[in-house]
Queue: 3 jobs
Job 1
Amino acid sequence: MKNACLLIGEGVDALTFPLRKFTALIESGGYEVEETRILSVKTPDTVKAALIDLKSGYDNVFLFSPSSLLSKLRGLLEEAFSRNCFQGGEKGLGAYTEEGKSLFLVSDGERGEEYLRGVCLPYLDEKYASKHAKFTLRAVGADPTTLARLLAQGEGLGGGLRFLHRRLYGEDVVEIVYDQNAPRMLTDEVLRLFAEGLGESLYALDDTPLEEQLVALLKLRGKKLAVAESFTGGGVGRRVVSVAGASKVFSEGLNTYSEASKIKRLGVSEYTLNSYGAVSKETAYEMAAGLLSSGAQVAIATTGLAGPESDSSGLPVGVCCIAIGIEDKVFVSRYKLSGDRTEITETAINYALFLACKQLKKM
């Protein structure tokens, strides 16, 4: 069974189409994508030739297009598939099936994603009498070399296992797709391999994002969280309150950007700021301690330099300090993050949520 993807657009829309996301969905369903092509509807002869070529070489072809173009593509598709083999849906979505070959028309946006998940993949499962399952591992701060080695080792186990990996803002998400008939010993070995290899950077053996896990842990421990942010600008608090039910465990969030604000709102001492600077483990410690002294049971504090330029301290862009306070203890970590302003900030937010989860699990 061989599968290919073809993206047809008018130009810029082809660049903005979430093709990587959609192909990842196909692969997470257990179906490997062996070839991907991007063509323009403005060259119809090339599109027709590609459709005929893909039909001859592949069992299943996923044709992705902006929704505005789907109806226009019907004429081109009927050059490769018979007119009467189209099983269409509204607004152009549908599938051509002929002589064991299948072509699926998938639009962009939520509607296309729902069609891919709810129609295309179940159709292939029925077509090939296959049932797939998957489990997800999530980690923050994992060593890239170690993770690459683990992925290679996992693939070497055989048994039809497929590993889908994505990394964003310091967080690694690994989806392991396998046949439901695979021996339990094989999947247990994969879990053991990654659990031992990733160590403390592994925070979830399911597809639970950091903010959801943090809210769940706070509820489990019966604790309320307060946040004091400097360079993350409210990002930590925003992630927490995005979770339904967060109001039960989130008490307040402060954006203490200036030194004066840190002194007034959190009780950070002028001596600490003058001696160590705003971006220091000492200042992060006192920010978290200030929240705890005000009645918070769990505290997160962030301070750092997101760039694009440093400040008068001369510290390199990307340096940040994150403090986690629980009851009467404060734990501080210092990092040197890389990337642009957004990458540094979002990575620091992930680290802050991860470190809070890590300390709550130890309670």
Note: The two ends are 50 Å apart (CA to CA).
Job 2
Amino acid sequence: MRGYGRAPREDRSGAGHPPRALVVALLLACASLMVLDSSGNGALDPARRVVGEAVGPAQAVADGAVRPLVGLSDRFESQDDLRGDLAALEAENADLRAQVRTAPYDAARLAELEGLTSAATDLGQALVPARVIGVGPSQSFSSTVTIDAGSDSGITPDLTVLNNDGLVGRVLRVTATTATVLLIVDPDSTVGGRIAESMELGFLKGRGVLGRTGRLDLELVDETVVPRKRDTVVTWGSPTGDSPFVAGVPVGQVVSVYSSLRETSQRAVIDPFVDFAALDVVGVAVPSGTRSDRAVVEADGSLR
């Protein structure tokens, strides 16, 4: 319409951009700051201090929030390692405690095995080592033990059984892997013995009592001979030399002597060297060269 003119069009080509003079001023300021900073004269230190005081606390908070997250995986790995180390230490401690508990038993067994080696050498007799695995009556016998060696180990009935202390008994019967041993303290057991100091012969019979109170009775062949206290009694032996009892095996010691008026004989009470209530490792006397499924202690003390 007449009287109204169209507004002049604005030049929007530079909209949103700072004036060219401002850009030039900023560039000159940056260049000046770079020159001052590289000069090392400390002119910018106050400005840095102001910025540090303003930004530092916020940066510390951010670092404190991020650091636990960054180290979280390492912490989990460390805890797993500690748990593994703790489990290993607990297992090692358990093993050590078990060794401490069984050390006396292992030492006692080792001493018994070493005693068998000495016995084999002293007697000139090969021995098959065995362990007592059962104690109890067998048929009509009341004082027997079962050992863990049988015919597979070269053991047969009527063989001498001993340990590092002395005579234990004789083999009654065998299976492939076990044997029943009649102890010398059984009332049905008779052993030929002799007084070591005088070589006088006699017969030993058991009283059927196990343990430290168990005793044997010795009746000498010569009724006029009176044994003395603390005399040692050993096995007499047998015609075959090794069955049922080899010669020279220690049996016990004389603790008292009494006379039987009715039988007009001298009897001696013998305290056996073997503690029959604590039997563990024993040796069965076998002929040299016997085939066995276990190591045999030879007469010279060597193992075969």
Note: The chain has three helices and twelve strands.
Job 3
Amino acid sequence: MERSDKVTLLVLYSIVLIGFGIYYYSFTILSEYHKIKDPQNYLYRIKRNLDSGRYEVAEKEIREVIQTFRPPEPEVFELLHRVTKYTKGGGNEERLELRKEIYRLLDTCGSAEMGKDKFILDSIRGKLKSSYNLDKNQIQIVRSVWKNLIANPWKCFAEFGISESEILDLLILSGGEICFGSNIGNTGVSFDGDILVLSEGSSDGSGAQIWYQGRNYGGSRRGFYVVIMTLSPHRVIRSDRFDVWESKNEAIRMAQFLDEIPERHIGIFAVSDEASENMTPTLEESLIKFGFARRTYEGWDKKFFGYSYAFAGIGVKGASEGSAIQNWAKYEPGKRKIPVAIVGILKGVVER
């Protein structure tokens, strides 16, 4: 082989090696970027920021995670406790620790791991607030929701004898969105009564509960339960259930139902089992008209809720997007944990 041929081969070989090196480096950088930006990898991002001393960034991420991925992993609260040592955030450390213990317990409630965490019940006992001032009707609906919770998703609390005030505190600490005033979120509309809504996702859940004036407008059948009320004086004018899992026709029917509702009417929503499989953009837009917003993720996509999630909300037709009260909880295949979402308005409740 002539010298010129050898030089040519060497140049070509070098070009191939350089090209492969550039490709490998680019692939590594892109993969790392994808991993960091993936919404589901929030623990990875938080730990990177903490290890790099970016405490304010880490704290902001943690608080966004608590509001976006519900229920958050118990480890999130451990990281929040760690980061607030370096920032001005934090708040009541005892309450933060209590939230972590509650999420740890709910993470294993009903599973084979439950036996290992029974000591958490004793730790929680005595730390819950017992100073909420509840009237007779509020006591009734809090106790009704509690009875349904301990019958299935929170059965680890079945022998946990606590007052209605302590139950309410537990609902709040576990992620419940409950307003003590009369305002329906930031819709600018008030609600003159008391209402408590419970959604249990997954096929293992017990259903949806919508408690108002001593009556449950929910049920145990799969689908999206909807109750429509007038402004004060409140009167239930329509209610229905839509099995959005079954077919797109049900999603179309629900969208038409919601579009027929006049402005400034109150809508109460609760999912039983599953209601995302045949969710359509049209139905999503109809929900947005009640003041709801896509606030969580399924994969990379912003959603109201994902497959077999729990979802509960109280909104007003014509309210601005994101102004309603809404809550959701993810379904995790492989875990026996049943997703639970709770929203409510308990008028005039204060701490004694």
Note: The CA atoms of residues 126 and 132 lie 15 Å apart.
